[in-house]
Amino acid sequence: MCRASGLGILVYSWERRSSGSDWTTVSNDNTTSYTTSRKVAIGEYMYRCTVSNEAGPVVSNSATVNVYGPPTITTHPTSQLTTVSMSVTLNCEGTGRGYFAYRWQTRNINGGQWSDISNSNNRRRVVRNLQESQQYRCVLSNEAGGTRSNVATVTVLKITTHPQNSSVPVGSSVSLTCTSSVSSDVTFSWTSDGRDVTGQSTSTGDISILTITSVRSSDNGSYVCNVRSGSLSVMSNTATLTVYGPPTITTHPTSQLTTVSMNVTLNCKGTGRGSITYQWQTRNINGGQWSDISNSNNRRLVVSNLQESQRYRCVVSNEAGGTRSDVATVTVLKITTHPQDRLVPVGSSVSLTCTSSVSSDVTFSWTSDGRDVTGQSTSTGDTSILTIKKVRGRDDGSYVCTVRSGSLSVMSNSATLTVYGPPEITDHPTGGDVPMGRSITLMCRASGLGTLVYSWERRSSGSSWTTASNDNTMSYTTDTTLTIGEYMYRCNVSNEAGSNVSNRATVNVYGPPTITAHPTSQLTTVSMNVTLNCEGTGRGSITYQWQTRNINRGQWSDISNSNNRRHVVSNLQESQRYRCVVSNEAGGTRSNVVTISALKITAHPSSTTVIALQDVTLTCSASVNDVTYSWHRDGGSVPSRSRGWNSNTFTITRTTPPDEGRYYCMANKEGISVESNRARVRVDVNNMMTNAVNFVHQDSQ
Predict the structure, then answer these.
(1) I need a surface site. Which of 28, 156, 373, 666 has the fewest CB within 10 A?
(2) How far is residue 254's CA from residue 323's CA, in Å, rounded to a whole number?
(3) Final residue of a domain: which of 294, 311, 332?
């Protein structure tokens, strides 16, 4: 600040110079105050103020300003080794202008952010109860700023990994591990109950491992690891090594008697060091390999639903090995052979057998429908047999065997004893008609207990009963070789209690039908119908079949749609032979052969021209023999001088023109007639004179 008094207009300016330099203007702002620049370097500077008016300037005294920087650290803190229980003192000294302030900072030894330590404003910093190695520095400050000291590391010598208590079985190997917080310039040593342990440890860097192979009981003890670095040392926690053997069984399982429906509890208890485990094992009562029982890792084993007697034992183990308990037998009291249902005929003997799984200290008793059965059973060891001689109907019932041993008892399955008599026939065989060469099946059914045995007998009229079949079947099929006749059959059904005979069944064996009316031969024409008749009689389903063949022999062939007693022949062109086959299931019978003769003209007369006075002959033939012929002319009679008008050859002698006409032949037999075609006869008169001369000449000779 600079102030002046005077008249006129007062004008202020400021100047500065450093050591060895000239004055220079630093401000013409015409202000009574001047603020130095922050950018001025460290050093000594002089400032003055010039105040002027219209009368002239005046210069103030010079003012000296010393610009100084942050302090300089003359003593830095040093790195040190310590233990958790020791204190460490860190020192920091500095020089410089202004007001000094100290501030200590720390950070993790592995790096990270520096953080201020509260209440650490002294040149000396005492570090106590340090658990982990840390880095430290001191920040020395004044108004110009702060200066950081060198970093000092305070390393805590301590056990980072202590050896652990171990419980190990005899003969095993064990290792104890000790780790230090310092990995260089450290040594390890081990003691057991205060005695040095040498030659069994290996140390690398910050780790030492003490290994004992095949431990013995003498290796039991308290082990300590000692870590030394320079003049400092630390000791680990005590690790107790316990060496132990297999467990001792104090409670053994005991043998027991049970039933299938009961549960049995087996107990086993062992004592000893280590991790004690239980494993139950079983095997067949007759020996064999022991096998582990799954999910049986408790002191107590519950055996349920045991079907067969078994042996059991418990294996109690730890890391040193296992100890087997005594063997306990669980015996299942049960019925091994149950009495069986029996079907017995009246008057026979029957035995029911019951066998127990236990052969000693057992008793047997029998009941029938809940009532005691006494005096009829014998028991030996594990077997009881109940015998009933000459059973009767009242012995029917449900029989149960009870086996008792001590307080336990089991009952057998119920065995039903059924007493039965001879069978009863419920369905009797029924006979019937059967064609010769075929068979009929007869059925017979019976009801009854026991083993039903069927046999069949047969007899014909006037004969005795003979065995037809011993095939033990309910059905019997008759023999296809039986001849025509009447046969009687019966069925015999038997069981262990006796037999019964069925009603008789009559079987009639019949043959082919007999023809009572044969067809007859007939004469017909092409335009006529002929009816043939045939009648048959017999058993079974009678059918008809008409057959035909050529009149000159050949194969017989069936006529389609000719299955009636009557057959109509129409439009017959040629004579044929016919017969009827009358059939049933036994076969067919042929009727007599008949001939149907078709009366027709087989050779017709031919038209002709004849020279007058000459003869003309016409011929005609019919299809059958023994016919009568007659000749006719349309519109008139035949000439009187003709010959053979009633034979198949007709001649007109010495024809004349009046003889011209249409001639035909008529064939007749048995009242049936047929006409031939018309034959035209013409007479040639033009050559009549020549023919007359010749005629005369011939006549003269």
Answers:
(1) 28
(2) 17
(3) 332
Tell me if 30 sits within 8 A of 11, measured CB to CB: yes
Backbone angles phi, psi at 123, to 5 degrees: -65, -25
Q: How many Cβ atoms sit within 10 Å of the Cβ of residue 581? A: 21
- For every residue of 43-73, DSSP letters joined together read EEEEEEEEEEETTEEEEPPPEEEEE----EE
Mean pLDDT to the nearest integer, 67-78 = 90
Domain with 578, as residue range(s), is 514-598
Average pLDDT in the chain: 91
Task: For the chain, give the percent of residues with pLDDT over 70.
Answer: 98
- Residue pair 667/602 in contact (Cβ under 8 Å)? The answer is no
pTM over 0.85: no
Alpha carbons 160 and 219: distance in angstroms, whole number: 25
The mean pLDDT of 126-150, rounded to a whole number, is 91
Q: Which of 374, 390, 420 is the last residue of a domain?
A: 420
Residue 635 lies in a domain: yes
C-beta atoms surrounding 469 within 10 Å: 17
Q: Which residues pair with 91 in a beta bridge?
A: 124
Per the structure, how many domains does the chain have?
8
Determine the pLDDT at residue 76.
95
Q: Is residue 631 part of a domain?
A: yes
d(CA 246, CA 278): 12
* Residue 678: partners with Cβ closer than 8 Å, 6 or more residues away: 634, 662, 663, 664
pLDDT band at 690 (very low <50, low <70, confident <90, very high): low
Is the pLDDT reported for residue 556 higher than 60? yes
